Structures are given as structure tokens and as C-alpha cells.
Amino acid sequence: xxxxxxxxxxxxxxxxxxxxxxxxxxxxxxxxxxxxxxxxxxxxxxxxxxxxxxxxxxxxxxxxxxxxxxxxxxxxxxxxxxxxxxxxxxxxxxxxxxxxxxxxxxxxxxxxxxxxxxxxxxxxxxxxxxxxxxxxxxxxxxxxxxxxxxxxxxxxxxxxxxxxxxxxxxxxxxxxxxxxxxxxxxxxxxxxxxxxxxxxxx
Length: 202
Fold this sequence. Notes:
- The chain is of the alpha/beta class.
- Helices cover 30% and strands 23% of the residues.
- It is built from seven helices and eight strands; from the N terminus they run H-E-H-E-H-E-E-H-E-E-H-E-H-H-E.
- Strand 5 (106-116) and strand 6 form a beta hairpin.
């Protein structure tokens, strides 16, 4: 929503991915009042078979937009990012998929990212010290520091009614990413990959 200053970097990070498997780019656009949608339409025209835009006719807010976008993903795996962050490693998807395919008990994988300011100067990194989460209790008991732009997980949203049956999504507004992380850790081992492959805008 209203990411006209950032969305090009975000989409370019997707397009630069080098893979030997097909992937789709699913973008939830929540009726921005700036030129975000127009920018995305130009990308769609250039890459019609790769980019799918889910556009709202009115601003629905973070929860509805997140869930609608996640439900719109039809692949076996989902890699997430917010519209103001961007990937910096063209092999990110390949590396993360390799981790998930190495062990069926791995439900998701996340990695280190740089924290950058408005001038793209690195001000820190996140997480400061990554770790695996073998279970949801390990995740809940730990200090939460998983950057959304680093996450890939097995797509449990393929069940179209999943979100309707899950109490974790009720009455939420701005913490959808935490809820998704909790659900990932509930389903298996949430792995940490000690590689820096994205930038998180402060």
C-alpha cells in the first residue's frame, strides 16, 4: 500500500531470481492512493505470465490484503516480503528451496537481512543471532526476530478455507507476519539459514 518509492526494488529482486524451477509473483495491492498500482501494471504488461496482481477496489487493510495474497499463491512453497523491502541475492529462492527439500520435517526457513535507512545505508542486521525453532513452544518462548522478507515456507494456504478456521487470525490488524511464523513453527522445524539475502528498510 502506497509503496511507489520502493516497489520497483522489490519487484526487481523477484525478477532477478535464478532458478531451475518455475515460480509466480503474487502481489496484493490494497487500493494505493499513489502510483504503486500503475507501476505494477507496467510490470504486469512486461511479464504477463509471471506476475499476478490482486488489486482491491477499496483499502481493505493489512490483514485482509495479507490473507487474500497468501490464498492467491498456488505453489507448493511461499516466499514472502513486504512491499518496501527487497531481496539482494539472485539465488535466494534456490537456496531456501534446497533447505526445505532436504528434510520433510522442515516447515519453513528464514535468513539474515541487512537493516537499511532511507539512504540504503546499513544500520544493522536482523536477526542478531539466528536459531532453529524445533517447535512452536520454542518459537513462542524466544525473542521474536524473523524478518518477513527472509521467510519461505510450505504452503498451507492451499486449503482455501484454512484462514477461516484458524482463531489465530481473528481480530488481528498489523501482526499477520507473526501469526504466519507461529503457524510455520507449529508444523515442523523452522530453520535458520545463516546467509544475508535481503534488505529490510527501517
